[in-house]
Amino acid sequence: MVTPIGIPDDWDDNNLILFEEFCDLIRTPQRTVRDWRQRGVGPRWTRFQGIGRLYITVAEARRFLASATVARVEVRSDG
User: Fold this and answer.
1) Phi, then psi, of 67 in degrees rounded to 5
2) From what superkingdom does this record's organism come (predicted)?
């Protein structure tokens, strides 16, 4: 049985996750997530003052994972 990827319930939606941490969390190579970002299909990222490392909020990570899960289920039910 496959366990779906999820954000722990006790994580505050306003907390930040580094790009690298998010990739580890969803078990996806950084190159793939960068490709999603370039195509505009990945989660929304931010940089402080437009420079430095990429961050995502816990709330955005939850939104992205929920939308990705729904899209996959819909594709399977139509196929």
Assistant:
1) -70, -35
2) Bacteria
Report the first-to-last Cα separation within the chain, whole angstroms: 21
Predicted model pTM = 0.75
Reduced to 3 states, what is the DSSP secondary structure of residue 55?
strand
- One pLDDT digit (tens) per residue for the chain, 79 residues: 667 788 889 999 999 999 999 999 999 999 999 999 899 888 989 898 888 899 999 999 999 988 876 544 444 555 5
Q: Return all residues near 23 (Cβ < 8 A) that are at least 6 apart.
A: 29, 30, 33
